[in-house]
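Teaching note: in complex prediction, the entire set of molecules is handled at once rather than each chain in isolation. The prompt given to students was simply: 'Predict the structure of this complex.' The entities are:
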Amino acid sequence: MMIFSGRWQDTSISKKKDNSQDFKDKIYFIIGKGGTGKTTIAASLGISLAKRGKKVLLVSLDPAHNLGDVLEKKLSDKAEKILENLEGIEVDIDEARDTYLKNTMNKMKDYYNYLQIFNLDNLLDIFTEAPGIEEYVIMELIWKYLKMDKYDYFIFDTAPTGITLKVLTLPYINLQWIKKLIKLRENILDKRSSIENIKGPSYINLNNEKVKLSAEKDHDPVLKELNRYYTRIKWIYDIFINENITEAIIISNNNRLSALESERALTKLKKIKMSVSKMIINKIKYRENEKYNYTYNNYIKKLRDDYNNIEWINLPDIKVSQLKEEHLQILGDRLINKGLYNKGGNNE
Amino acid sequence: MNTSILVLIGIVIYLVFYFTYGRSLAKKVVGADDAKLTPAHDKYDGVDYVPAKPAVLFGHHFASIAGAAPILGPALAMAWGWWAGLLWIWLGNIVIGAVHDYLAVMASVRYEGKSIQWIAGKMMKKRTSYMFQVFAYLALVLALAAFSTALAKLFVANPNIASAAAWFIVAAIITGYLLFKLKINFTLGTIAGLAMTVIAIWLGSIFPLNLSYQVWMFVFFIYMMAASALPVWILLQPRDYLNSYILVFGLLGGVLALLIAGSNMEVAGFTTWSANVVSGVGSPFWPVIPLVIACGSLSGIHALIGSGTTSKQLDKETQGLIVGYGGMLTEGLLSTIVTVSIGAFGLIVLKDVAGPLSEMGIVFDKLKDPLYFASNYVKAIGAVGGPLGIFVRSYGWAVNHAFGLSASLGAVFSSLWVSAFVLTSMDTGARVARFAWEEVLEPLKESSSDLHRVLTNRWLGSGLASGISIVLAWGGAYSILWPAFGGANQMLAAVTLLTVALWVYKVRKVGKSFLWAVLIPAGALWLTVFAALVWYLSAVPATIIVKGFIVLELILALVLAYDFYQAMKNKDLSEDSSGSIAG
Amino acid sequence: MNKWKDILTEFMKTEATEYVEIEVREIEHIFALLLIGSFTGMPAPPAGLVLKLLPYLGPELLIMEKRAVNDDDLFGQMAGHFDI
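The expected output is the structure of the full assembly:
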């Protein structure tokens, strides 16, 4: 059965083409457990790059926003200038979700002005609580920012690891689903058009109004939307797996829980083929006057052995409140000079 | 007595009863009223509930109920003589069969297009609905088995027919590709398809296909499994479409041929009461005849079709008569053609194989004697390909006598029609069986869900149905399997008739005299089938599987009678708990 | 005469598409199920995708709703297409 449907069906999915070739910017995802120092590191990276003349957008996806605190600047969901070349955003997920839901409802109203099958208000409530909505909204926001031309670098200070990983795996999962749905939809349209060829167009009675069942691939809004979404997701997916563009930087502390969480992140990211460039062990307690003036927690040690092809960086425990802009810049420079460019990409 | 007169009598009887008996059923029992909205309008959705033009609906309904069954049965029943067969085909049809079909459609119309199975559950007990399911499943499996063996026998004895059927499949596949993939103009595609059909017939005569019976069994098994898994546009749809043309031409051609030919009936009108119909055993005309002649006179499966799709497409209530009652009468006409052609030309056909017959121990000349005929007919037709074989060859002679066309051409033409219908029945049957199997297993879901999951695997579902059918058919005893199918089929009809009797009595609340019009056939049918099944158990050397089915049917029949009796006694039925119209 | 020709044509067109119509209804139903299935506990595409497509899925959702309503009579519906 597959033979017949596969060979003779003209699917509109472009197969191997890498859609990321046109994207000339770079993206960093700063990932880690809460409290490990993500925001500080993200900020320092941002400042350092900005000082070097790169146009940077710093985005906090963490609902518990710290970015504004670290930078000592009030941030909002619109880009605010922090320094020359550096702008910052703290996303408002709830507001974004409400906007997307409202847009959907309005579209439905436009499309079916007699749509009383659904009680629209109830539907809104369902979707607010639906699993997966939050990840979807964050992904849409990421896409929105990546589309902004004025920036060269995007640094994302992420939400707690769990949800971040869900967001980052979204393109990968979505692609499989969308391909299946597109195939099904094309099958439906193909059969409808063969019926139409014989009997003429089919109608369905939606609440006493005759609606024509779409049968042409070019005129079916569902297929169009599926393809549109597929293109967008593929674009994001290709960018995410392109190690010249996207790097994930994992921030861990020197303890067991951090290590375990980092390991989960490493596994997941490997599965979706996102490149992890650095493991930063932050807030290490250095001991004075000792030969080996720090030791890794055992779990961290094991992690380093397993993933020894990533760059490992140790950072000391510094009181955040003491960090001023110049400190952050030094930190950022240190991170950059420690081989930020060793995988190609924009060279200074 | 000749063919023209008989066909004429048949047509007249049907017409008279249609306009008198049928009309009064519509008026007095159903109260057909065009002012009442049918579900096609009430629940119109453009998908399942769409009003259709009455002629189109009639055609569709008829094409669905007509298949190979109205041919197989009468061909076998010939052992009793053609008057015997015609009696049942004419009287049984107008008094029981067409009433059954018509009321099934109308009851469904009054119940928002729900199926008879659903209505049975409401009228009697929930288990009645389940029982219906079981009968339907058994009927399906047995039908597949009976058809498999009959078709295989036809193919073995007529290799050119087998070949034509195979080429016809090729033609259908190509047509399907043209119409549904390339989407060429419908008229062009149709013409191409019909042209290829003609070529298929020609190719069949050039390259006969000689396979053994066992190989055909294997082929059919694969066919049932594979065809029911394919998308429909590849084979099922185009073949069924092309076959509608063959059906129409075949029926019209047959009627005309017999009217024009005016040949004398050679076979005896009545042979004997207990002819050797079932499995070479003396079979009493009553109660066995309904088991042998099902479609064409009375068939429970028609209720599935009538209440499954037809009722949802009925435009006006009064049109139900032509579709339901008229449809069944038309099928009766088809069976009349079968009986009359074999009655007139069957002996000519058998004369051709006098040699092989004597090898089987049958002396051709003795066949003119009614008693000898009664004992040896069923065995004799094995030499020409069984019941299907005797029919297609007789049809060929009819066409030859009337129009001067080649007899073998007529035979191949009608064989295409027969084999295509059998193949379609196998295909759709395997699909529906898969579904029916799941419904039958429904009770298991609660008690042991793991077992349920294993058993409802889809390959198991269709594999089981196909497998059992082939196992049953392996022995090649269509004379055993066909009546077994008839038993399950007529039990189905009994459930339907009892259900509509209840509907007429409790809900419609018609006068006594009209109630009897439904109740008497219902009761008579139940009694007859019960008696026939008991006789079958005692007299027929069937396999354990078939006997098992029969025992199951008998038990369920008793439960059915009990539930019916209870439902009759029960006072409050007219207020339907589902809140549907049911008026 | 024309009327008969029309009727015949319409009859033939019905015969030519009956099974394909049933099949496409089934696939439409599956399609709708896949999308909405998340609300019934089936693994389903992320809610975001469903949201995007929802405005255009009126017909499919209607079909699904009808299926749900006729759930107690599915065999009856299916068996209606059996040819014997």
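Point out the following to students. The first helix of chain C runs from residue 2 to 36. Residues 2-81 of chain C form one domain.
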